[in-house]
Fold this protein.
Amino acid sequence: MPLLLPLNLPKWLAENSDLLKPPVNNFCLYSGSDFIVMAVGGPNERNDYHLNETEEWFYQYKGDMLLRVVDEEEFKDISIREGEMFLLPANTPHNPVRFADTIGIVMERKRPKNSTDRLRWYCRSVSHKAPTIIREEMFHCVDLGTQLKPYIDRWKNDSSLRVCQKCGTVADAK
C-alpha cells in the first residue's frame, strides 16, 4: 500500500468543519493497520461513558475540553487545555465533553477481533456511594462515528432504559 501524504490539519479543518457534527462529532482522518486518528469537534456533551479495551490518546488542538472519567470508583473530571495531551488507560469509563468551537485529535488502537467496547450510563443520584450503572451496551467497535448513534438514540427515546434499578431515579435523556 502506498504511503499517504501528510495532512495539513488547519486547511482540512477549514474545508471540512461541517463533518464534525453531533451527536458524535468525529471524523476519521487516518485508519492504519494499528491506529485510528480522528478529528473531534465541539460542542458535544452526552451522558454516556465509553469503555474501550485499548488506550486512547487525546490532543487538544483548539480550545479546552473536559474528560469525565470513572476512576477508583469515583467520578472525576480531567481538564485538557489547548495544546495539552493526555493518555487515557484502557478500560477507563470516559465521557468527553467538548465545548463550542473546539477541536481535538484522538488516536485509538484498532480493536482486536475479540475486543468489546462498552457504553455505560450511570445513575447520578446522591443516594449511591459509588458510581452505579443503569445501562450498559456492548459491541465490537469498527466505526465509532456510526456505531454509537443507535445506542445513544435508543437511550434518549426510551425512558424505561433510563430507570435506575437500585433507587428508581430516571436519568436524563441527554
About this structure: The first strand starts at residue 26 and ends at 31. The mean pLDDT is 94.
